[in-house]
Write a structure and sequence with these properties.
single chain, mainly beta, Methylamine Dehydrogenase, Chain H, 2 domains, four-stranded antiparallel β-sheet, 1 helix, 30 strands, about 45% strand, globular, WD40/YVTN_repeat-like_dom_sf
Length: about 350
């Protein structure tokens, strides 16, 4: 069959396709100025006693850090001041341990806390710190605001999921706050397959649960229908975090690994073998470039470069880190816990690291 190919084209070498740039490259290659983590020293707060920092959370404007412990109070810290004492203490009618705290995603003065022993969920306005704004009678282990802040997801010790309506009139007053009828039972009477953490995706239409059997369970929200279970760890999956850019879902487990799942197909794209101890808590930096992982037996927080999976820095802690949280607009990391492995005395501690 005749063709229209010229003699010059017949002699021309075949075209070579340009190499595809690697998806995960270092910060210098991407012209990103990395923080000099080695030049920073943590600022520490410590109090002796049989206590522990259970959870910390930044206000959405980054001006305050909320913490809760067994001291029956929620403390608000002005991180620009000294850590010798908290800026505010929220106690109200609570007379028992506070096991979880969450800050409102859009209002810097609003937050909620949970006291399992008191059997109450407390909603706070920092401008009215002497008394809680509202209470819901429910004994839960954790509370998590939905991204639109219209509801709160609560999880109790028997792994029952409940939804709380918390819409506001204007920006100050509660409007018929109530416990919805929808619920989901994930655990058994024997206590198996416990849920360690519940988080939302950025859209707020799906909740992700870290479970004792090493699975990540995906639950449609607010219908609470189980959509899928994702194998993540060979032992317990303790903690989850979403990359602010929406690219990765990170998980940490008792096997000492941090897994990064691509959020398009939820396939593990990277696995970071941090150290030989369980990963109790993880969090992404505001730009998604770094992941902090708190390791119990090592009494350390490790900073991992998200795109390369490399361990960037190790921060020695005053004890066992139980919670970590990055500032919403800065490479500033807060972490806290207790020193349960100390041979001498036990106490709670809180540290700030970065700039």
């Amino acid at each position: 069959m005749p063709t229209n190919i010229s003699k010059e084209e017949e002699q021309a070498p075949p075209s070579v396709r340009a190499a595809t740039p690697p998806q995960h490259v270092s910060t210098p290659t991407r012209k990103i100025v990395a923080p000099q983590f080695t030049t920073f020293q943590p600022r520490n707060f410590y109090r002796s006693g049989n206590d522990c920092i259970n959870k910390i959370a930044w206000s959405c404007d980054g001006k305050r850090l909320a913490s809760c412990s067994n001291s029956k109070e929620v403390k608000l810290w002005d991180i620009e001041r000294s850590l010798d004492s908290a800026d505010l203490s929220l106690s109200g009618s609570n007379k028992d341990h506070v096991n979880h705290v969450a800050c409102h995603p859009t209002h810097p003065q609003l937050l909620c806390s949970a006291s399992r022993k008191a059997g109450q969920i407390y909603f706070w306005d920092a401008r009215r710190f002497k008394k809680e704004l509202y209470t819901i009678p429910l004994a839960v282990d954790s509370v998590t605001y939905a991204p639109d802040a219209q509801t709160v997801l609560a999880m109790d010790r028997m792994d029952n999921m409940r939804i709380i309506d918390c819409r506001m009139v204007g920006s100050n007053e509660p409007n018929e706050w109530s416990l919805r009828d929808e619920s989901l039972r994930l655990g058994s009477d024997a206590g198996g397959d416990s849920v360690y953490q519940a988080i939302f995706n950025h859209v707020g239409d799906m909740a992700f649960l870290a479970k004792e059997d090493g699975q990540i369970t995906m639950v449609e929200y607010p219908s609470l229908n189980v959509w899928h279970s994702l194998p993540a760890h060979v032992t317990a999956c303790y903690t989850l975090a979403f990359d602010p850019r929406g690219s990765y879902l990170a998980s940490g487990g008792a096997d000492g690994f941090v897994n990064l799942f691509d959020t398009t197909e939820f396939i593990a794209s990277k696995t970071v073998p941090t150290i030989d101890s369980g990963i109790r808590t993880i969090a992404f930096s505001y730009d998604g470039e770094y992941l902090a992982a708190g390791c119990a037996e090592q009494s350390s927080v490790f900073i991992v470069c998200t795109e390369t999976g490399e361990l960037t820095h190790r921060i020695p802690c005053l004890g066992t880190p139980s919670t970590v949280a990055w500032h919403p607009t800065r490479h500033l990391l807060a972490f806290g816990g207790d020193n349960e492995y100390s041979p001498t005395s036990r106490g709670r501690w809180l540290s700030i690291f970065g700039s």
